[in-house]
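Protein: N-acetylmuramoyl-L-alanine amidase
Species: Streptomyces argyrophylli
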Amino acid sequence: MGTAKDDADRRLGRRALLVGGAAAAVGTAVLAREELSRLWWRMPGVDKPRVAGAVDFRGARWVGASAANYRVADRPSDYRVDRVVIHVTQGGYASAVKVFRDPGHGAAAHYIVRKDGRVTQLVRELDVAFHAGNREYNERSVGIEHEGFVEDASSFTAEMYASSARLTAAICARYGMPVDREHVIGHVEVPGTDHTDPGRFWDWDRYMRLIRAERERARASASPRAAT
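Structure follows.
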């Protein structure tokens, strides 16, 4: 679990500069309607409409994090998404949800996976969640918390591994990410972090095998032969 200190920025930030830079480049020329629409969503203070309660992963439960714990964005249009960051909550599911909904906490992940495999989404993948403790990595990644403790091997159940692997496989497919340890990383691997999660008891070999199996299963089901 990260903090928002390093992710805080002025409202007149990158998106405002993108708009200003585009306007300067074209001078008085009329921008194409599609480009104007795309840039308008990047302007500070503008919230792209969302569907209340909608989730990015089928079967997930929506429980929204506090708006203070993430930044509204339009990913991957404004920030490429090329990482999944694996976290451990260092507590129970209910306590993790409580702090992510607390505006004073300053952090939230996109998802929490429970020991029984149930998935809760708290921040939409469009948006930048404050989870990694590194602004660049927050902007480019999807954060997944896992209920439990890094020093308790029993936290990481078969149901959790299987469900989390399905979630990560879906995220990798959505953004065209390779399924490898360069793109699926632990919080401990984020530059500048002082966290150790997911810890020594997280079975990376098992987890990556499950993700690859889910990707292959999804590809097989989507193939023309599978449809006949």
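Remarks: DSSP finds seven helices and eight strands in the chain.
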